[in-house]
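seq as requested:
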Amino acid sequence: MFDVSKYIKRQSSKNRYQSQLDRLSKKGINIKRFQKVIDQSIDNIKSYINSFCIYGDPQSGKTEMMILLSAKLLDVGYKIVIVLINDNVDLLRQNLKRFSESGLDPTPKDFNEIIDPNVSIGNQEWIIFCKKNSKDMQKIIEKIGYIGEKVIIDDEADYATPNAKVNKQEQTRINQLVQRLLGNGIYIGVTATPARLDLNNTFDNSSSHWICLEPHEKYHGQNTFFPLNHHLEYDLHSLPNEYDDPKYLREALLKFFVKTSYLNMRIGKNYCMLIHTSGKRVDHSEDYNQVIHILNILSNQSPKKDFEKLVKQIYDIADKCFTQDERDKIIIFILENIKRNKVVVMNSDRDRKNYDFTQATTPISLYTIAIGGNIVSRGVTFENLLSMFFTRDVKHKMQQDTYIQRARMFGDRGDYLKYFELTIPKNLYLDWHRCFIFHELSLKSAMSGNTPIWMEDRRVRAVAPSSIDKTTVKMDKGEMGFAVFNYSKEVENVINNSNNNSFMKLDILNKFLGNDCLPEFLTNFIRDFSYDGVNSLAVHHSTDISNRGDDVNKDTIERPKGFIGSSEMEKDKFPHAIHHIKIFYNSKNNKARIFYRYISNVRFLKNLKKL
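struct tokens:
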């Protein structure tokens, strides 16, 4: 007898999340860091936290995490998952391709595939990609805006989505449209730079429920490219702060040819060089013309004088890095293979329609050179990136979220890291270095369960001022605290031991309490930025707050205005101190926190709104 029920697949029996975990495990990928994020996300939703953020370092695996999160959301019963992408068709293609190749069920759709009147949303499950473009978003709102049970995963959430008119009692267009699309659904912002979401109060996201995606074991990020100890595992080449000479780009390009050739002869891979311009089209053209000019000379071996000059420069570069035999093989290899090149200008021209930027991001040519500005600064992943050249310095304040996102060299650089070259104006590198220090300190504080505090100075600002909600954000010199711990006599003895200098006390406290309570990153930062040695750091005696007023939360050891004021800094006792460490504890429950204050033309931004 025919019984249709025998053949109907029950959607509830699917375990797409586990299938995706199995897919990654078969590739040898450690899935624990992803599982932690997904579990915390579902716990947030079950606890009615309808707006929160997931953050992770640039190119640390956030796209893979979003694939797993989408699978889990479908498994727990959500019918529609909308993935918002920056208004960049190539970024959309790159992410949609990766989602589709994962084997997700249902297959993810571009929003254009579902807005046709003949497509019925019905009670089906959907994963829909849409650019943060006003026309595109209006169309998708018309199609599915009425549906309540949906989740928005906002990739690069701090870009375009926050309301840049927050202090004018108005809404920017994209912010308004995302809110309309969201309705009463779940909002999950994904980004490497969550400061703007916090200081903007974007969709009332709950910073106390933010989730951190930890980088994978092979990840090379801030500690590699901007180390506090300045020990570099790669080749950093500093440019003059003011320059307008094509010789610097020429030298970087020829070094790229040399290193790519050496690596290709050994392991057979193609590599990419990214030339990061100021963002102006004219700069794209100038750099493109320089690159093409050099390729033409080497390919045609003419004009003879120019050709010999370039080959001599290649000879000198290879001679410094390799043996005589390797040098000669590299030069011959370059001249025999120089026509195997691809130069891709990545900009936002609307007339390129079918132009595929994956030729640059996943290099299919031996010598691949990508040239671009702002469009390559967010979300675009460059595989086998071997060289990065910054052509311009910053003439104004560096914005943390913008420049952290521009670190396209971050990621899995494998065993070729020592051949990687970053060519950059000296002051830009120093500002960028400090930018990452500020960012890391803020995130370490937030990860410890505290209200995030964002640092900025005269050269580096946290976010665009227009995005800061002035009704709830306090801008002042301030402090940051870390995880709560049990106060004990051992801790008190470390503080009071006069035989140990301030640096020694810091190291002992770090080892005794652990990184959550006193991050090693902070101790390294203090050492590296103590220009007067141990005199730059004051480790103060602990203070009991059990009898303080109502403005102090005695259970969590928190105070909106902070604890370390002028009197606590003891300037007569520590006249040269710019770093201040002090423990505040509650003697009634023996709970305590370490607080840190940095005095060096630095402002601290803190959102006082309790969510």
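The CA atoms of residues 223 and 444 lie 14 Å apart.
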